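Worked problem 6 (solution included).
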Amino acid sequence: MNREAIATGATVEEAKENACRQLGVETYDDNIEMEIIDRQKNKILGLFGGHPAKVRVFIKTTPAQAAADYLGAVIKAMGLENIEMSVEEKEKNVINIDITGEDVGSVIGRRGETLDALQYLTCLVANHVENSYCRVTINTGDYREKREKTLEILGRKLAIKAAKTGRKSSLEPMNPYERRIIHTAVQKVNGAISWSEGENINRHVVIGPDPKSKGNFKGKSNHRKPYRGKSSGTPAKAPNPDRKPLNEGEGFGLYGRIDK
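Solution. The predicted structure is:
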């Protein structure tokens, strides 16, 4: 995908400078190419005819550049200042964008909802540049790592509670990536299982006792061995009785692959 600009000037060089200014690049940039549409023509006797030079300057846009340009434009439209971005391509088709600054709280939003939405939209833009799929991750500091750790702790805590009391708990709606983090954490606790309920933005994780478990969890030192005592509650009937991990994230990270 190319970005291009058409401009005029008294000379070809001046027209090129005007076009480059529109694109936000320098005239000596090695990535730009120029096509002369029309050369300047001087007026006859300084009075009749004549016209300025006209050129087309274009530069190839990479998925990473398209992602950075779009995200920067959105942040600017949000009225946020003192925000800096660093773009890194660690491997083919993987783009990591880190945001820093005083106003990063507004970029993150409630429980990361704004950050997730920006990542989703930026991924759409990046994938319209070329035919191949690329994955975009937007982070600010180590927010996503902290969020993942918080969800792991929450999932394990509620799984232990379900195995011990025989009661189920419903979590708030989450995206597929975060739901999978919860499912994975629950799988590490014997006596509990998890499944998803609801549709679209209301889809959430439910954690309950494992119907196949013969007892309840007890104790902290050896949490993988269920307590073989009398059940204190009636295990709830739930999907996924084989305790197989639920592939909510589809292996592609937040929101999965985007083809359209």
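Discussion: The domain at 144-249 is CATH 3.30.1370.50 (Ribosomal Protein S8; Chain: A, domain 1).
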